[in-house]
């Protein structure tokens, strides 16, 4: 079946540095990918919709200059957390949409734990 | 805006016990409803879905019925196994499957042998 791979699964970075998380669709092309974050004991919240070859669409309240999303190819979207702070520590997870004649199917990555110290 | 509320966990059950995880939603339109499962160390997987009122989604012994009158989509399984231990997420999509999802907070299920 379709697989979405996220990397790294865990990352620790120092406050003020930037960190990049990759989301790859391994065996299909995904024109649309989604980025979510989840705080402990809270819902997964959609951060942005990433479309290949165009700018990402950010949800209200998400800082586009802080969470840079790039979808340069049909199999790769990246999320860069710039100038990270401890409050950015969270679980980030991506999903990719596979379009078929029967409709779209969403596949999720394994998620990435970010800890900012 | 749209929202999903799930019962808090963790839920701890003995093997072969009956499982119910409650899920209610608020939506302006007529959403599609989903249950996702996340096993340790893995990504989210679609467990089942229902796209209209009174639809019943089922998979791997799990069932959930789309109840418009009570805005609910409770997950049930008659006899849980240790291998069902995971985190379960209820979610909705207001624009059909394949578009963005609104998730509940997730419920941890632990099944003891």
Task: Encode the helix/strand succession of chain B as letters.
Answer: EEEEEEEEEEEE
Q: Count the DSSP helices of chain B.
A: 0
Please give the radius of gyration of chain B in angstroms.
13 Å
Largest interface: A-B, 25 and 21 residues
Largest sheet of chain A: 7 strands, mixed
Low-confidence stretches of chain A: none
Largest sheet of chain B, in brief, is: 6 strands, mixed
Distance between the termini of chain B: 41 Å
Count of beta strands of chain A: 11
Radius of gyration of chain A: 14 Å
Task: Name the descriptors.
heterodimer; A: 117 residues; mainly beta; seven-stranded mixed beta sheet; four-stranded antiparallel beta sheet; 11 strands; globular; B: 113 residues; six-stranded mixed beta sheet; 0% helix; 50% strand
Structural description of this entry:
Chain A is mainly beta. Chain A contains no helices and eleven strands. Chain A has strands spanning 4-7, 10-13, 19-25, 32-38, 44-51, 57-58, 67-73, 76-81, 90-100, 103-108, 112-116. In chain A, strands 2, 4, 5, 6, 9, 10 and 11 form a seven-stranded mixed β-sheet that branches. A four-stranded antiparallel β-sheet of chain A has the order 1-3-8-7, with no helix packed on it. In chain A, a hairpin with a 5-residue loop joins strand 5 (44-51) and strand 6 (57-58). Chain B is an all-beta fold and 113 residues long. Helix content of chain B is 0%, strand content 50%. Chain B has strands at residues 3-6, 11-14, 19-21, 23-26, 32-38, 44-50, 56-59, 62-65, 75-77, 86-93, 102-103, 107-112. In chain B, strands 2, 5, 6, 10, 11 and 12 form a six-stranded mixed β-sheet that branches. In chain B, strands 3-9-8-7 form a four-stranded antiparallel β-sheet, with no helix packed on it. The mean pLDDT of chain B is 92. Chain A binds chain B through residues 4, 6, 34, 36, 38, 41-46, 49, 93, 95, 97, 99, 103-111, and chain B through 4, 8, 36, 41-46, 89, 96-106.
């Amino acid at each position: 079946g379709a697989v979405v791979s996220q990397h790294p699964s865990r990352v620790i970075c120092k406050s003020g540095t930037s960190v990049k998380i990759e989301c790859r669709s391994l065996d299909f092309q995904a024109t649309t990918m989604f980025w979510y974050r989840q705080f402990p004991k809270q819902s997964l919240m959609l951060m942005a919709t990433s479309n290949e070859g165009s700018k990402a669409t950010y949800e209200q309240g998400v800082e586009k200059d802080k969470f840079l999303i790039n979808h340069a190819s049909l199999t790769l979207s990246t999320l860069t957390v710039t100038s990270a702070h401890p409050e950015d520590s969270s679980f980030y997870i991506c999903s990719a949409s596979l379009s078929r004649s029967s409709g779209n199917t969403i596949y999720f990555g394994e998620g990435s734990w970010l800890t900012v110290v | 805006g749209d929202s999903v509320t799930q019962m808090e966990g963790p839920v701890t059950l003995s093997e072969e016990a009956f499982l119910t995880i409650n899920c209610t939603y608020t939506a302006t339109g007529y959403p599609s409803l989903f249950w996702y499962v996340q096993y340790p160390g893995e990504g989210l997987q679609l467990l089942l879905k229902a796209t209209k009122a009174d639809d019943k989604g089922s998979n791997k012994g799990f069932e959930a019925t789309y109840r418009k009158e009570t805005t609910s989509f409770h997950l049930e399984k008659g006899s849980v196994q240790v291998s069902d231990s995971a985190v379960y997420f209820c979610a909705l999509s207001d624009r059909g499957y394949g578009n963005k999802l609104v998730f509940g907070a997730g419920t941890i299920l632990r099944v003891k042998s």
